[in-house]
Amino acid sequence: MPDIALFAQVLDPANRADPYRLYAHLRETPILRDEDGTYIVSTYAEIRSLLQDSRVSSEDIPVFKRARTGNPILDFIINPIKDRIIEAHRPLLFRDPPDHGVLRRLIMTQFTTERVRATSGRVHAIVEDLIGKMRGREEVDLVGDFAYPLPVAIICELLGIPPGDEQKFQSWSATLAGVLDPDHWVREEHRLKSIENYDAITHYLSAIIKAKRKRPADDVLSGLATYKDKKLGRMGKYDLIATSVLLLIAGHETTVNLITNGMLTLLRNREWLERLRQDPTLAPRIVDELLRFDPPVHFRTRKTLAEIPIAGTVIPKGAPLILLFASGNRDPKRFQDPDRFDPERPDNLHFGFGGGPHYCIGAPLARLEVETALTALAKRLVDPRLVVDPPPYRPGASLRGPARLPLRVAAIAA
Ligand code: HEM
Fold first, then answer.
1. Ligand 1 lined by 246 (C-beta under 6 Å)
2. What is the enclosing helix (H) or strand (E) of 309?
């Protein structure tokens, strides 16, 4: 008899440090119906198949609904209109065809490989600068001192966000990252806080976009605000705002976890830290294996648009789905000795960046940042040691990573 409380245990912060043993239990029933009718998909083949299935929708986040204020103009006219606009213009992560494809193609005209490659010099410079600032200290927090400021600085530069504004949206971004957890919407105060933060971040970005339309610069937001495709036309105002919010948050909340999970894994597997120090060409393989072994995105939600027979069960139409990427990545039917960190493993086709039509747009940027970061940390931190193991984790179960990663170092090399 499958244990239906297993996924509740995955969401429980008490299990954040090690959800992998729960995933192993979940995989005993590849498609598990939870008490509330959600279907948890935990095995590699089934996740892969559903990611590519056109009967599976990404338009699954609950409708925004503001709290009543007592002011009838706000409650019955203005706020319902605002909510409807947000609903109709969700970011592409929560959109299906044909809108999803149109938005994605427009974004890709600006978020180009050349633009990402051109940031390489800045990534190196920021990495060296952040490590340089640690000199003279015996203990550092890898999250606050390094893993957070690096991707934030890079995504802000790429998008064209004024330097120095990062502080403004750190807390908006952290709250909004929580919307990916299914239990987030259940609590009224979380829902209202998300709406409040979404309003704040969209207000902030609308002003920036307006300025960029008038005086475009060489950055992604200027490009998106002014580009007109011959067939697809221009990206509309509200879609542009939603896209900017998504890029900013995606650029904030994921890469930080890959750097931190990466360093944590390397410190638990010191042989690989030493090998990376001696041979930086190993970085791409190490980062790829980290994306399988301890990925920043543990699961994503979906909804079925039709009945789907799969793995001996039938998922009904309209059912919420949880695709447990991090469990699929440890499925022994797909990966040999899956609980072993092994950058030499062949055919490492993991779900670290998802799969199917919503595959991560930021993957090349994230790889560039994390490969550069881990290579420099391996080279310059002399005899780094974990102060606590496991470290304290942030609350999110879907976007999962340490809140702090205190390290003791003998020195920081020049
Ligand atoms: C290590 C860092 C990152 C990881 C692990 C990661 C992971 C993912 C995953 C798993 C998805 C698929 C979600 C789904 O199927 O529902 C995704 C989508 C996406 N990611 Fe990333 N991401 C990272 C960094 C970034 C960065 C730096 C950006 C952009 C600046 C970005 C932008 C996006 C966007 C726009 C999507 C939605 C694509 C779509 O819906 O078509 N990501 N990411």
1. yes
2. strand 308-310
- The finding on whether 247 has its CB within 6 A of some atom of ligand 1 is yes
pTM to 2 decimal places: 0.94
328 C-beta closer than 6 A to ligand 1: no
Condensed to tens digits (0 to 9), the pLDDT of residues 194-233 reads 788 888 888 999 999 999 999 999 999 999 999 999 998 9
Give the residue, out of 106, 158, 353, 365, with the most ligand 1 atoms within 8 A of its beta carbon, to mutate for a pocket test. 353
Angle between helices 283-293 and 255-268 (to 10 degrees): 100
- Give the closest residue (by CA) to ligand 1 atom 6: 353
State the distance from the centre of ligand 1 to the C-alpha of 367, rounded, in angstroms: 12
Domain coordinates in residue numbering, the chain: 70-294+348-412
State the pLDDT at residue 200.
87
Pick out the chain residues at pLDDT < 70: 1-2, 4, 184-186
Non-local (6+) Cβ contacts of 97 within 8 A are 54, 357
The DSSP secondary-structure symbol of 295 reads -
Strands 31-33 and 320-323: unpaired
Q: Are 349 and 42 in contact (CB under 8 A)?
A: no
Query: Residues 303, 60: contact at Cβ < 8 Å?
Result: yes
Helix 188-214 / helix 166-177 crossing angle, nearest 10 deg: 140
Start-to-end Cα distance in the chain: 58
For residue 258 and ligand 1, the question of a CB distance below 6 A is answered with yes
Q: Are strands 320-323 and 39-41 parallel, antiparallel or unpaired?
A: parallel
Ligand 1 centroid to Cα of residue 204, in Å, is 22
Which CA distances in Å does 59 have to 21, 37, 66, 104, 387?
30, 17, 19, 15, 42
Which atom of ligand 1 is nearest the CA belonging to 356? 15
Could you tell me the maximum CA-CA distance found in the chain, to the nearest angstrom? 67
Write b or e for each residue in 168-181: b if 16 or more Cβ atoms lie within 10 A of its Cβ, otherwise e: ebeebbbbbbbbbb
Strand partners, 315: 308
What pLDDT, on the 0 to 100 scale, is given for residue 386? Answer: 98
Under 8 Å CB-to-CB from 246, ≥6 apart: which residues? Answer: 91, 92, 93
- Rounded Cα distance, 155 and 252, in Å: 8
The yes/no answer on whether domain 70-294+348-412 falls in CATH 1.10.630.10 is: yes
Q: How many A from CA of 255 to the centre of ligand 1? A: 10
